[in-house]
Amino acid sequence: MKLKSVLVSLFLPLLSSAPLVSAEVSPVAQDTAAYAVENYEGAMTDTLAELVRFETVAREGVALEKNREFTGFKRALRNKARELGLEYQDHGHVVIIALGQGQEKLGIVTHGDVQPANPAKWNKSPFELDRESEPGKLIARGSEDDKGPIATALYAMKAIKDRGVPMKRRVELMVYLAEESDWEPLKAFLKTYAIPAYNITIDANYPVVTAEKGWSEVRVTAAATPIEVEGKPYLSEFYGGYFRSQVPDEAHAIVTNPTPALVEAIRARAGRQKGVDYEFVEGDDKLEIIARGKATHSSEPEHGVNAIAFLADALKVHDWPANPAGSTVRYLNELVGTGILAEQFGDIAYSDDFMGPMTAAVTMVKADAKGLTSYLNLRRPTGKSATQLDGEIRSALAGWQKSSGIEFATIEVELGDPYRVDNAPHVEPLLEVFRHFTGMEDAGPVAIGGSTNAKLLPNAVSFGPSMPGAAYTGHSEHEFITAEQFRLNLKMYTAMMIEIGNL
After folding, report:
1. Of 390, 415, 440, which residue constitutes the final position of a domain?
2. Which domain holds residue 245?
3. CB neighbours (10 Å) of residue 17?
4. Which residues, in sequence order, are CB contacts of 371 under 8 Å at separation 6+?
5. What is the pTM of this model?
6. Mean pLDDT per 10-residue segment, the chain (503 residues)
7. Which cofactor does it need (predicted)?
8. In total, how many domains does the chain have?
9. In a shared domain, residues 247 and 188
């Protein structure tokens, strides 16, 4: 008798004697999870090191199939899938890696693209797995978002295959390659794809995410306008931020014609701030100010220190002439502030009992062809319609323009829809997996500020990889996953696939 047949005959009684919707994780799931860690933890870490080498950042004007980083990444996935005995399908922007042949399916949703990273802010290249700088941490762009979860899912599938675990559902790991930049190719793919009945994204938080706020943005542009300075102080430059979904950790301003009293006032106000470091560089009739805070994912602004917002606050000591930089600083101070709940922005602030408050974070101030554009990232919960919120945003901006005498060249408001799934049948089994492996018996569904591809799929919830209460390090300039968490994720993802794959 073949080994697989022997294992199937041994495991079938375990599966039948422990109903998967019960309050316990089945013995076969526990056993296979332990096997996965014992046999594949090292290989999983090595695979992560291989995957993060590819700088899978979208490049404007370069098609995916022409970008060597993406083609190399897909080739690495193909080779790894074949090595592990898994099925590989290339659908362009979507790669499917599958286990099993059943008609019913379980979808595990991830992404292989990443946000940019500033090499100057990392001990090693962000595209090299750093295992040494901080013992116990695996540091690299993509380690948590989302190449770490991809590596974990691959070895969970491998462990299930090794052990010959009976599965009612075919497991399909979907790796999308433009989650951070463009969802349209995925929408097109899903029109012809046989979508699984149960879908789980591994691109967020534990215990189980059943609601996501809507990604939204307010963009205002201060156009270049003639100003009379006559040797008086003015802001000749103000800019900061790296990309639109990161709380920025660095911002710059240049004050032209500074007076000693003004410099002293700026230094004094900056010195009263917490969590921000300042560098002041004085030159001929100029003062350059560099503010350094703490970067984090803009869905969790409470975990960062917004360098742009605090630099604007430090400059609040002067009524700046209304050129682009001066207008922008006045707007930020008077409507945005240094808080994260949009409480200064007219009447737009609100909260939902389950999803929590809408958050707001200025993520970039950047010069472009129109002028100087500010990007305010909102994460909006249920509880207020898009029509109402759009009207309140525009009303607040109109009121501020009238009272300040400053008119923006352009105003753009983009409001994404919140997502919420209730009564999905796989939520309770997922919670039981989490409770079993963490000991957190009171764990229940949660909402997040982030926005994952779960929004595009039926019955989709998120399961990890970040623990409750921990700052999500993806999109920061210090992205990592701990070796301990990586190991725990392998246990839980292996058990999750078995439990949900047999519902």
Report:
1. 415
2. 214-415
3. 9
4. 221, 222, 223, 224, 324, 409
5. 0.89
6. 34 35 81 98 98 97 96 98 98 98 94 96 97 97 97 98 97 97 96 96 97 97 81 95 96 96 98 97 94 96 97 97 96 98 98 97 94 97 97 98 96 96 94 97 94 91 95 93 98 98 95
7. Zn(2+)
8. 2
9. no
